[in-house]
UniProtKB/TrEMBL annotation:
Residues 82-317 form the Trans-2-enoyl-CoA reductase catalytic domain. Substrate binds at residue 225. This is Enoyl-[acyl-carrier-protein] reductase [NADH]. Keywords: Fatty acid biosynthesis, Fatty acid metabolism, Lipid biosynthesis, Lipid metabolism, NAD, Oxidoreductase. Involved in the final reduction of the elongation cycle of fatty acid synthesis (FAS II). Catalyzes the reduction of a carbon-carbon double bond in an enoyl moiety that is covalently linked to an acyl carrier protein (ACP). Pathway: Lipid metabolism; fatty acid biosynthesis. InterPro entries: Eno_Rdtase_FAD-bd_dom (IPR024906), Enoyl-CoA_Rdtase_cat_dom (IPR024910), FabV-like_NADH_b (IPR050048), Trans-2-enoyl-CoA_reductase (IPR010758). Belongs to the TER reductase family. Coiled coil: none annotated.
Amino acid sequence: MVIKPKVRGFICTNAHPVGCAKSVEQQIEYIKSKGDLGDGPKNVLVIGSSTGYGLASRITSAFGYGAKTLGVCFEKAPTERKTGTAGWYNTAAFHQFAKAEGLYADTINGDAFSDEIKAETIAKIKAEMGKVDLVIYSLASPRRTDPESGITYKSTLKPVGESYTTKTYDTDKDKVHDVTLEPANDEEILNTIKVMGGEDWERWMDQLRAADVLAEGCKTTAYTYIGKALTWPIYGQATIGKAKEDLDRAAAAIIGKNTDLLVEANVSSLKALVTQASSAIPVMPLYISLIYKVMKEEGTHEGCIEQIYGLFSSCLFGNTATLDEKNRYRMDDKETNDATQAKIQKLWDQVTQENFHEISDYKGYHHEFLKLFGFDIEGVDYEQEVDPLVNW
Ligand code: NAD
């Protein structure tokens, strides 16, 4: 079939296998261009491995450090008539590139929140890897079924305390307008913590420990976004921010339970960029279009792979780490420093429907958005027939 993007609101409902493979290849080339990264992980488990920051972590582990990687993700396989999801094609491409270089790579596709998938993952680690020395936790999901109670919790993206009126950009209608977001009630806050907080990260680490598959000195990190004043009311100090605060609790708990193994657990704060997860958050498309403009002008623009390369080489496996007062690695300074934020704030105050395309980098945002699904990538002929049935 000939595959053209089908964009519906903040999501694209199909994906291009050749484009996804190209995008994975570009990230691999970036990591390889960094040369020998020195000592690093050997056996890596990436939970949320198929897109965004998790995929970049997997690529860095494998092609930067030569590590074996086991991924866990939740993706849809293609059929004769419908393409697979981007994460499906990314994973297929990753396996192929890894295999070509003799690197072990396997992926488990299923609900990472469930105990069944945890057990399957642990069995595979035991059989094929021995023990893991790095566990990346990079899930982004709107719901989670708690394996103990069987209850399915849904997260909400709402302010906490009081309602908040701000500007937003509707990608569907190409419209900048004001939006008022009503505050979450207590139940919504607790439900969001259940989904995106640290409970499941801790559960993974408990079960990996109980199965004796954590290597001594194993490192683990979960990703967060902290941001600054412009995004605090809808992110940092909102329902999702409350959930992310719970990651700090979980990190301390993981360290406490694994002192004999000298496990290092840190939350890592990364910059805002276009991923399937962030494009679903109100305000983010507008904010990201503006930071892309400012950071490209400053020469500090980075995507997932650049951020994760920095995290691995300077924090997780380097000695130039900056830990903040909550023991978090900070990779977000190029976005959140006062000078850059002041420039973004200035644009934010000016932006209207009329000047949006002129003063923002929505063009760059939209290109990155399409790229997430394998579209708008140089060197790919989108008029060509392609077989959607790609398998791992
Ligand atoms: P993403 O949507 O690109 O990736 C999410 C991953 O989780 C995918 O691999 C998906 O398959 C997997 N997943 C989702 N539900 C699953 C389930 N039930 N079982 C198994 N796998 C499942 O998201 P992302 O933006 O890369 O986010 C990853 C992490 O990074 C999140 O914790 C997010 O908060 C954080 N982060 C994102 C940004 C940003 O701007 N995008 C910034 C800082 C931190």
